[in-house]
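Hey, I'm writing a tutorial for new members on how sequence and structure tokens pair up, and I'd like a real worked example in the thread rather than a made-up one. If someone can provide the structure for the chain below, I'll link this post from the tutorial.
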Amino acid sequence: MKLPYGISNFKSLITGGYAYIDKTDYIAKLEEAGKYQILLRPRRFGKSLFLSALEHYYDIRYQADFETLFSTLYIGKHPTPLKSSYPVLFMEFSGIGTEGGHAQIYQDFDRKIAHALQKFLTRYGYPDSTLEGVEREPSPQTKMEYFFRIVAEQKILLLIDEYDHFANTILSQDLKLFQSVVGKGGFVRSFYETIKTGTMTGTVDRLFITGVTPLMLDSMTSGFNIGENISLHEDFNSAVGFTQPEVERLLRPLVQACQLDADALMADVRRWYNGYRFYAQAQETVYNPNMLLYFLKNFRVKDCSYPEQMLDENIASDYGKIMGMFSIGNRDTNFAVLDEIINTGEVSATQRRKFDFDKGFDRDDFISLLAYMGFVSLQRKTLSGEVFSIPNHAIQELYFHYFKVELERRNQISIPDRALLLAVEALALDDDIQPLATEMQRVLPLLSNRDAVGMDEKHIKTLVLTLLYQSSVYFIQSEREVGHKYPDILLMERSPFAVKHQHLIELKYAKRGDGAKGWEAKRQEGIEQVQGYLQLPEIATLPKLSAWVLLADGERVEVVKVGI
């Protein structure tokens, strides 16, 4: 199977013989839903490929290629009357630099517009003088006005990809700059006002926009209020992303080649990459397609082992950049949300369809932003709002990497990565938990009073998990349900790493005011709990398992190894 990892050109994918998950049944649904639509999904979620499929389906230039490209797909067997009927204007806004401030953003945006318009005019046989006319126009707005005069007798399809790529970066750095670029009087808003005029005159007959968040759309609403945001509509929950049956088809060759347990493999990729829901009542969750394709591409068929890193560095880097948006609004409020997500696994909020920065940026705004970016996903609706949780283990890892950075920043401390890697190695190979306890002992007293206020067992667990997640050796399970009991931490062997020891760790917090008796009582309580866990059949059959109680009071740390 040829895997289309990193390929976003539909024609190259189809003619190159790559595996393709057919999403073309959504084309007719889009036509029925309206003329001007916006679909928002997290980064690297397959939006660009979906947009490319629309381009090749509707563009009159590809009419002769229609059978080659679509004959085996749903839409090829059930075409709509609009197939191969439009000249297509395609624009995308990734790669716009923000370091140089307003001047650089304006220049790069203007260049993007000019190149897209000139490419259209060249592609559809307009004279060279029209290209020169685009170049003479002084602004993105006037370039579009000139273009619409040139093509006034036609009806075109306008596709815009990554509409907010640069704007999200600006917002995380400088709210005033964001408002000057996108808000009233800004050149981006003026550009979209011109697009709106193009729809009113009939030149732009259809429009489809992709992006990540509605932040920019909402800032220019009065200038561009024609688009329907279908991102949270039940009919489009799975328009991009892979469903369970689609993933099963992609995994089948691996199962056959390596004689793997199909259910076990499916369970692993589900834990790592599934969990995205964009409509609260949707029956199925979807997988991040790029994450899943990365896994397939880097799976070692020679020894049938998983990739060492279960998350592509490129995706991790993208999400790392988006983490900069944690600084929007009140950073302490945002940190409290982050702390709640990590400690409880979920948060509640009223999901925002729009953001109004003139009214501030509150907790609901921040959680909604996390949802659009894919850091949390809808689980269910309640009478008071929506409940969101971390979608999968890949995102969980990113949270704990970021949480370490925030702990260091907030408390002006340094937690050496190398020491943590060696501590996990000692656990894996030598059954030695003391290096981990030493790092705990070093960090706990350094935490500021602000983070130590209300210190309890969950804070101890969060810190232990933060330290453990800096290594990728173990599959880390927190409060996994086992026989109706919930061990604090299980460190499970995962492919491709071979470890000599797996671990169960129960955490206990002793209040300093309770003295030696309180400390001893907590130690005994932890030992009895662990002994109970070890009697459970599912735990008792785990190979190479060591069990521990880790006891702390905010300053000192003690570890006790527990047997049956």
